[in-house]
Design brief:
Order of helices and strands of chain B: HHEHEHEHEHHHHHHHHH
Distance between the termini of chain A: 49 Å
CATH architecture of the largest domain in chain A: 3-Layer(aba) Sandwich
Largest interface: A-B, 30 and 26 residues
Strand content of chain A: 25-35%
Strand order of the largest sheet of chain B: 2-1-3-4
Strand order of the largest sheet of chain A: 6-7-8-3-9-10
Helix content of chain A: 25-40%
Number of domains of chain A: 2
CATH superfamily of the largest domain in chain A: P-loop containing nucleotide triphosphate hydrolases
Strand content of chain B: 5-15%
CATH class of the largest domain in chain A: Alpha Beta
Radius of gyration of chain A: 23 Å
Number of helices of chain A: 11
Number of strands of chain A: 14
Helix content of chain B: 55-70%
Order of helices and strands of chain A: EEEHEEHEHHHEHEHEEHEHEEHEH
Largest sheet of chain A: 6 strands, mixed
Oligomer: heterodimer
C-alpha cells in the first residue's frame, strides 16, 4: 500500500502514530495515571512495563477510548481519543489480559462475529477470515468451541479477532502471560511480522527478555512514567550507570555465598545474582584484582571478571530506586 | 450508524441462547408456574376438616350437621366425644373446625327456646377461619328462618347474586391471566440483566466496548432475542390457559399481544438498569428479586390492592406490572377493548419512555 504524505492525517510528525501528552486519570483522590507523555512511531513495538497496579491497564483503557482521562490528551493515528473515543475503535485492535472472547461460540463463530462487528461483510469478510486463519494457523480449529482451546490457542484466536479489520495499532495486554514457551516465541514472531508490515504494536509484559525485543520501552511506576525510549538509549543513561561507576559480571564458584561478601566490599554499590554469575555495580576505581582477592579469600574460585552493559532490568531497578529515594 | 453491528449481536446472542443448557428452563419455568398457580393454589375454600361432638343425638342435631356438610365448606370427618377431645384435636391440627351440640339442643327447639350450638374454629389460617365462621352463621340463620316458617319463596327480600365473567368463581381464572404478566417480567428482567452482566463477568464486554459496535446495537441486539422468548412464553401460557384451564380469551387477542409488546419495553429497561448496578450475576439476582417481590405481591396479581394499607397502596401505582395485570384481566376475562383500557395503556407508555431513557443513559459503553 502506498500512501502519499498528503493522505496522512495531521500529527506531530508523520511518523508518529501515538502521541500522548499529560495523560492523567484520577479515581476520587487516587491518581492512577499521573501526567504521562510519550510518542510512539509507526511500526514500532512498544513494550509497556510496570508492576501490577502501577497504572498500565488504565493507560491502555484510556488510549482505547474505554475510560475518559481526567486531564491531558492522546492522539492515535491522527484522532484525538478524548474527543472521538468511538472513531478510534475502527483503527485499533485490542486483546485483553484475560481471554475475553465467547467460550460458548466456535473459533469460526467468534471470527465471523467480530468481523461483522467491525463492519466486514461479503467477500471482504471471507478474505480477511481466511487471512487471519492462515496467519495464526487456526484453520484446523475452526469448528472447535473457543472454551475448549488451550491457553496458547486462545491467545492466537484473540489476536486473530483483533486483526480482522487490519488495525493500524494493536494493543496486547500481557499477551504471553501463562502460555508455553513455544506459543510465546510464535507470538513474538508474529509481532515482528506485523511490525514489519507497518502495524504499531503496544504490548504490556512482565518479562524482561520480551522488553529487550521491543523497539521502544516505557516503564511506569506509582502512576508515573519513569522512563521511555529505545532500550539502547535507556541503557546508556547516566542515571543507570553513574559517572565513575562500572558494571561487571563475575563468574565464580558458590556465587550465592559470595554475594554478601562482595556487597560488603568497599566501592561496591550493588551486587545481584544472575544465574550462576554475579552482576556488580562498582566504583571504576575498584580494581578487578581486589575483587578477585576478596572472592578467593572467601574460599571460592574466581573464573572470570568482565565488564558488561546494563540490562533493561538494571535500568528499571536503578530508576525505581532513585525515585523512591528522592 | 446508530445501529451498527445490530444483526451480528442478535445472531450471536441467539446462538448463545440456543447453546446454553439453562435455556430449556426458560420454557419449563412458565409451564411449572402456570400449573402451580392454576391447579395447586386454590383459593376457593372448601372441605375444611370438621369434627362433631353431638351430645343431643336427635333428628334436629343430625339435620344441622347435615346442613353444614351440604355446604361443601365443611367435611365432617369424625364424631368425637367430649369437649376436651374437640379442643385437643384442633390444637393438634387434625381438625380445623369443631361443632359441639349441647344435650338440650332439640329439647329447647321444641320448647321454642333459643338453642345454642358452639362452633370452634382454628384461626391460624385467617382466610379459612373467616370462611368457616361465615358459612356456619349462614347455615344457622337459614335453619332459624325455616323454623320460623320463612321459606325463600315467602321471604320479603331476595338477593340474587349473579357473578359476571367467572360464574364458577374459579381461582385459576383469576391467577392465570395475571401470571402472564409475572412470567413476562421474570424473563425480561432476569434474562436481560443476566445476559449483560454475564458479559461483564466473563470479560467479553471489555472486548465488545473496544469495537465500533454502537451502544444502541449492543442493547437492542441483546433485547430482541429475549423479547421473542417473552412473546413465545406469553403464547405458551395463553394456550395452557385456554386449553388446560379452560379460560377463554373474551377480548381481542391481537390487542392483548400488542399491549404485551408495550409492557416488554419498561420490563426490559428494568433488566438493563439492574445490569448497570450489578457487577456479577449474584448481585443481579438480588437486585432482580428486589423488583420481583413487589411485582408479585403488590401488583394485584395475587392479592387485591384495594385492601392494602395507604402507603403500600400508593406504592402499587409505581409498579408497571400492576397496569399490565389489569390489562390482561380486562381483555381475557371481561372482553375489554382498547377504549376501556386506555388509561393503563397510557401509563405503561409513560413507564416505557422513562425507563428506556433512564436505562440507556445509565448504560455506558465504557468500563471501570
Amino acid at each position: 500500500m502506498t500512501v502519499s504524505p498528503a493522505d496522512l492525517p495531521p500529527s506531530p510528525s508523520s511518523q508518529t502514530t501515538i502521541s500522548v501528552r499529560g495523560l492523567t486519570r484520577r479515581f476520587g483522590k487516587f491518581t492512577a495515571v499521573d501526567s504521562v507523555s510519550f510518542d510512539i512511531e509507526q511500526g514500532a513495538i512498544f513494550g509497556f512495563l510496570g508492576p501490577n497496579g502501577s497504572g498500565k491497564s488504565t493507560v491502555i483503557r484510556m488510549l482505547c477510548g474505554l475510560l475518559e482521562p481526567t486531564a491531558g490528551n492522546a492522539v492515535l493515528d491522527g484522532i484525538d481519543v478524548t474527543r472521538r473515543p468511538e472513531a478510534i475503535k475502527e483503527r485499533i485492535g485490542y486483546t485483553s489480559q484475560r481471554f475475553s472472547l465467547y467460550e460458548d461460540l466456535t473459533v469460526d463463530e467468534n471470527i465471523r462475529f467480530f468481523g461483522r462487528i467491525y463492519g466486514l461483510s461479503g467477500t471482504r469478510l471471507k478474505n480477511r477470515r481466511e487471512a487471519v486463519l492462515a496467519l495464526l494457523g487456526l484453520g484446523p480449529y475452526t469448528p472447535r468451541l473457543a472454551g475448549k482451546l488451550s491457553g496458547g490457542w486462545k491467545q492466537r484466536l484473540a489476536v486473530a479477532c483483533a486483526l480482522l479489520h487490519e488495525p493500524r495499532i494493536l494493543f496486547l495486554d500481557e499477551p504471553t502471560a501463562g502460555i508455553d514457551p513455544v506459543a510465546r516465541r510464535d507470538l513474538w514472531d508474529l509481532l515482528f511480522l506485523l511490525s514489519g508490515q507497518g502495524t504499531t504494536l503496544f504490548v504490556t509484559t512482565h518479562y524482561m527478555d520480551e522488553a529487550e525485543r521491543c523497539t521502544k520501552v516505557g516503564y511506569i511506576h506509582h502512576s508515573k512514567l519513569m522512563v521511555c525510549g529505545e532500550p539502547e538509549t535507556l541503557k546508556a543513561m547516566e542515571e543507570v550507570t553513574p559517572k565513575g561507576m562500572v558494571r561487571m559480571e563475575i563468574e565464580c564458584t558458590h556465587p550465592t555465598a559470595m554475594l554478601e561478601r562482595l556487597r560488603a566490599l568497599e566501592g561496591v554499590e550493588d551486587a545481584t545474582l544472575f544465574g550462576q554469575a554475579i552482576h556488580l555495580l562498582a566504583d571504576s576505581a575498584l580494581a578487578p584484582e581486589t575483587i578477585r582477592r576478596s572472592i578467593e579469600s572467601g574460599g571460592s574460585e574466581c573464573k572470570a571478571i568482565r565488564p558488561i552493559e546494563p540490562s533493561l532490568e538494571d535500568v528499571f531497578v536503578m530508576l525505581t530506586r532513585r525515585n523512591s529515594e528522592g | 450508524m446508530i445501529l451498527r453491528g445490530l444483526s451480528a449481536i442478535m445472531y450471536k446472542e441467539t446462538v448463545q441462547i440456543r447453546r446454553d443448557p439453562s435455556t430449556r428452563f426458560v420454557f419449563l419455568i412458565p409451564v411449572i408456574q402456570t400449573i402451580i398457580f392454576g391447579y395447586a393454589i386454590d383459593m376457593d375454600i372448601q372441605h375444611i376438616r370438621t369434627i362433631v361432638h353431638d351430645m343431643d343425638r336427635s333428628a334436629e342435631s343430625r339435620r344441622l350437621v347435615e346442613s353444614l356438610a351440604n355446604t361443601q365448606t365443611f367435611d365432617v370427618v369424625e364424631e368425637v366425644h367430649g369437649d376436651l377431645e374437640v379442643h385437643r384435636r384442633i390444637v393438634a391440627g387434625t381438625a380445623r373446625v369443631g361443632v359441639i351440640v349441647p344435650p338440650d339442643f332439640s329439647a329447647k327447639i321444641l320448647r321454642g327456646e333459643k338453642a345454642t350450638v358452639q362452633v370452634l374454629v382454628d384461626g391460624s389460617d385467617s382466610s379459612v377461619a373467616t370462611n368457616a365462621v361465615q358459612t356456619a352463621l349462614g347455615v344457622g340463620y337459614l335453619q332459624a328462618l325455616q323454623r320460623a316458617g320463612v321459606t325463600p319463596e315467602t321471604a320479603s327480600i331476595e338477593v340474587r347474586p349473579r357473578v359476571l365473567f367467572n360464574p364458577d368463581l374459579e381461582s385459576s381464572h383469576f391467577y392465570v391471566p395475571g401470571l402472564i404478566g409475572i412470567i413476562l417480567q421474570v424473563v425480561t428482567v432476569f434474562l436481560t440483566a443476566f445476559a449483560i452482566v454475564r458479559e461483564r463477568e466473563r470479560g467479553t464486554l471489555e472486548q465488545l466496548v473496544v469495537t465500533p459496535v454502537s451502544k444502541g446495537a449492543l442493547i437492542l441486539g441483546k433485547l430482541v432475542p429475549y423479547c421473542v422468548i417473552g412473546m413465545v412464553q406469553t403464547l405458551f401460557v395463553l394456550l395452557l390457559m385456554r386449553w388446560v384451564f379452560g379460560v377463554p380469551v373474551e377480548g381481542d387477542v391481537f390487542l392483548l399481544l400488542s399491549l404485551s409488546a408495550l409492557f416488554l419495553l419498561p420490563a426490559l429497561a428494568m433488566g438493563i438498569l439492574v445490569s448497570t448496578v450489578s457487577s456479577n450475576q449474584a448481585q443481579a439476582m438480588q437486585m432482580g428479586m428486589l423488583i420481583m417481590l413487589p411485582s408479585i405481591l403488590l401488583s394485584g396479581f395475587a392479592f387485591p390492592r384495594e385492601t392494602m394499607p395507604g402507603p403500600i397502596y400508593l406504592l402499587t401505582f409505581l409498579i408497571p406490572v400492576t397496569y399490565y395485570v389489569q390489562i390482561l384481566r380486562g381483555i381475557i376475562l371481561r372482553g375489554a377493548g382498547f377504549w376501556a383500557l386506555w388509561p393503563q395503556t397510557l401509563i405503561l407508555a409513560v413507564f416505557a419512555v422513562v425507563l428506556v431513557v433512564a436505562s440507556s443513559l445509565r448504560f455506558q459503553k465504557r468500563i471501570g
